[in-house]
Amino acid sequence: MAWWSDLVDEEPDFARRVRARFAVRKHGTMATLRRDGSPRISGTEFEFDAGDLRLGSMAGALKAQDLRRDPRVALHCPSEDPPEDDPPGWAGDAKIAGIAHELPPGEDGSHRFRIELTEVVLTRVGTPADHLVIESWHPGRGLRRRQRR
After folding, report:
1. What architecture is the 4-148 domain classified under in CATH?
2. Which of 32, 77, 85, 115 has the fewest CB neighbours in a 10 Å radius?
3. How far is CA 35 from the centre of its chain?
4. Mean pLDDT of the chain
5. What range(s) does the Pyridoxamine 5'-phosphate oxidase N-terminal domain occupy (predicted)?
6. What is the number of other CB atoms lying within 10 angstroms of the CB of residue 97?
7. Strand partners, 29
8. 138 or 90: whose pLDDT is higher?
9. How many CB atoms lie within 10 A of CB 116?
10. Residue 75 neighbours by CB under 8 Å, 6+ apart
11. Pairwise CA distance, residues 4 & 114, whole Å
């Protein structure tokens, strides 16, 4: 099992850059699996607290029901467009895949989940702006960097 704190310990600079992408706005996107196996995209808020990555939802929300049935989840940071005059100045997009572990409900009955990491990816425009730089981290494999033209 790998938690956010494990990534911070192993690759602090990469973790800092990923977390910064999730902090650009309050709401990001998550993907869950519906009962029939088709994807569901939902808006959500992310919380990085005490070495954990957590998310929540209102009591009875479909996305929470999805995670209770199948805990696989994908998270995408809030997006920002690259500056037209300086694409390499774009900090990129971050994605996290993982397993949602349900926590005790909030006082209002809301659902809360702690995310176990299975993959963390940061994609940005390289310098010069003729390629993408893709950094990915997997538990047990570590951080890898590649370019795509």
Report:
1. Roll (2.30)
2. 85
3. 22
4. 94
5. 18-79
6. 16
7. 43, 76
8. 138
9. 19
10. 22, 28, 29, 30, 31, 44, 46, 55, 95, 96, 97, 98, 115
11. 10
Give pLDDT, residue 6: 97
Q: Give residue 66's identity as a one-letter amino acid code.
A: D
- The dihedral over CA atoms of 118, 48, 124, 87, expressed in degrees to the nearest 10, equals 160
Two tokens, residue 115: 């995310």
Per the listing, tokens 């900090």 go with 91
Query: pLDDT tens digits, residue range 91-118?
Result: 899 999 999 999 999 999 999 999 999 9
**Which tokens go with 82?**
């690259």
Output the pTM of the full model: 0.93
Phi, psi of 66, rounded to the nearest 5 degrees: -60, -50
Token digits of residue 19:
């977390």
Token pair, residue 117, equals 């990491």
Q: Which amino acid is at 75?
A: L
Name the β-bridge partners of 114. 54, 101
- Torsion, Cα 39 40 42 44, to 10 degrees, reads -70
